Amino acid sequence: MRSNREWTIFQRKQADDCLVGVVYPAAYAVGMSNLGFQWVLRQLDITPGFFGERFFHTPGAAAPRSLEGRRRPGDCHLLAFSVSFETDYLAVLQFLAAAGLPLQSAQRDRRHPLVVAGGAALQVNPEPLALFVDLVVVGEAEAAWAELLAVYRDTADRQELLVRLAGRPGFYVPSWWEIRYGDDGAIVQQERTADAPAGAEPVVRLPVLTADDLAALEPPFTNLLSTGTEFARTLLVEVARGCPTGCRYCWAGYRYRPVRPFAESRILAIADAARGHTDKIGLVSTAVGQYPDLARLMADLHRRGFHLGLSSMRLADLTPELLRILAEGGEDTLTLAPETGADSMRARLNKPFTNEQLLDGCRTARAAGIRRVRLYFMAGLPGEEPADADAAAALAEAAGRALTGRTGDGRLPVTVSLSPFVPKPNTPFQYAAMPPLPELRATLRRYAAAFRRRGIDAQIGSAREAHLQWRLATGSRVTGQQLVAVAEGTADPADLIAEHSAVAARPFVATPGRRPPWAMTTWGLSENHILEEWRRFRSGDLTPPCPSLAGCTRCGICGSTDPSPDAPPSRPDDPESTR
Ligand code: SF4
Fold first, then answer.
1. In this prediction, what percent of the chain has a pLDDT beyond 70?
2. Nearest Cα to Cα of residue 508 among 91, 182, 90
3. 567: exposed, middle or buried (Cβ count in 10 Å: 0-12, 13-18, 19+)
4. 280: Cβ below 6 Å to ligand 1?
5. For residue 410, what pLDDT is reported?
6. Buried b (16+ CB within 10 A) or exposed e, 327-343
7. E strands along 46-98, which residues?
8. How far is the CA of 150 from the centre of ligand 1 (A)?
9. Where are the domains of the chain?
10. What is the rounded distance in angstroms from the CA atom of residue 153 to the CA atom of residue 133?
């Protein structure tokens, strides 16, 4: 780790009153590419009274020390965990254990750092970590983080701090709630503990920033560039948040809508500051193509001498002009996510383009000078047919031919990433189960064989890791207790998904009207909307894109249809398993 070379765009602060350990519970290479992790460090650099030092953790690592000052976690006033993936939950516990800190928040007191956690995985479901963290900062962190630091500056007393944040959007204190689960794993009772102040809300509302809020903020970016990351000397900048499409499998699509861009002047200011360090820039967003006048922004960056890369372009946003600017900026690969080779399944996922439209996109890319294509597929979707494996391989082959114009033999410039599908909370697929592990493995083998037959390079995801991710993503505080056994070394990580293991993490498949374990937090997405989308998945009906319009109440996030989380939703139809 120490041999990695780093460059800093804006100078970092070396010391101040309050030391915050910023913890990424995975390897350095992963953490340093994470915009949320880098954003927290940047906020500490620009907030008087605080400074941050980095910790990373991989399983089996020795007692953690900070990268900057070789300090112990226990030396910090505050530990801020950035938890991006469900599979990092276990590493959070392992980090606390390796640091010699009590695992459970109830066992820690004023002698220990305050343990705060945020990050993408906790937006989905913070409950598996509920017993171990003092405070969860949920929702878009820009809304809550400054408030947390301001209150911390006023009072270092942990109980007073938590009480002052009670009822504020985005702050969840799990220890204030005692939860009882039914036999099916649903929440059947939730009671305040004696410590909980009157202002503590039974369900925490996660903040959703307005377009004006976002436009006024500095976008998250990689202030620290490092040779130890996949992106090495590429400056990553988040240019917009949200995607209008409403793909039914995508939790981020539901979580970050409506689409809101960062100001172009702020993006260019970061690029200008970085120009002495790098000439590569990656524009990041849930849907980069939704950035208003993206072509102008790209042209501006190109004029400043940057080579450009874009994350996750929607096919509908690919214009010949964008492709030309990308190719001129040095990009030679078109990345698309058809998810499936079957048009009918893609429509059921609410991803409204056909195979033929994707092939047209490849031909346009060829004309612009793009030479390679990378395709993302999923396997194990509810209702998937065995023939879908060959349909995916056939589409990959056709995409390669459309991109090259070749009809004969020879290896095509196509690479495929195939991921096992994982149903996530707060998406329509929360009502669906994953296929059993042996069945999922057989499905992945079928896909691998289909790609091999057509000479397509395919990276195939792990069925085991996908199952673990599902169990943790839909887990509860009971799941958290099972993680303790693994963190303390009395159980093996493999036991978490072993069928007859005492610590097997049990997945939760939602039922309308029952409160799932993740119902302790909400950002206003209405359960009626999710149920309607589940019905539409089964009927194959498309839902039009999020209109990003003031006054819209369709999904509950912007409008007034915020459901009372305790009230069972009215039922349009009974969801039924498609398996
Ligand atoms: S309420 Fe309407 S505008 Fe707001 S996120 Fe939902 S669909 Fe989009």
1. 96
2. 182
3. exposed
4. no
5. 79
6. bebebeebbbbbbbbbb
7. 50-56, 78-82
8. 31
9. 6-205
10. 20
Ligand 1 site, residue 244, Cβ cutoff 6 A: no
Q: Domain 6-205 classified CATH 3.40.50?
A: yes
pLDDT band at 564 (very low <50, low <70, confident <90, very high): very low
Residue 426, burial from CB neighbour count under 10 angstroms (0-12, 13-18, 19+): buried
Distance 165 CA to ligand 1 centre (A): 28
Which tokens go with 188? 């059947």
- The label of the residue with tokens 């009809």 reads 407
From the centroid of its chain, how far is CA 185?
A: 24
Task: Say which residue, 223 or 574, is predicted with more confidence.
Answer: 223
Tokens of 530: 């999710």
Q: How many CA atoms lie within 13 A of 98 on its CB side?
A: 21
What residue's CA is closest to ligand 1, atom 5?
Answer: 258
Residue 116 host element (H or E): strand 114-118
Asked whether 443 and 421 are in contact (CB, 8 A), the reply is no
Nearest CA to ligand 1 atom 6: 555
Which atom of ligand 1 is the closest one to the Cα of 257? 5
| CA nearest ligand 1 atom 8, residue | 546
Ligand 1 pocket test: which of 558, 560, 561, 562 has the largest number of ligand atoms within 8 Å of its C-beta?
Answer: 558
pTM of the shown model = 0.91
Q: Judge contact between 257 and 545, C-beta under 8 A.
A: no
For 493, counting Cβ atoms within 10 Å of its Cβ (0-12 exposed, 13-18 middle, 19+ buried), the class is middle
Mean pLDDT of the chain: 91
CA-closest residue to ligand 1 atom 3: 548
Nearest residue by C-alpha to atom 7 in ligand 1: 546
Does residue 208 contact residue 557 with C-beta atoms inside 8 Å? yes
Q: With a 6 A CB cut-off, is 562 part of the ligand 1 pocket?
A: no
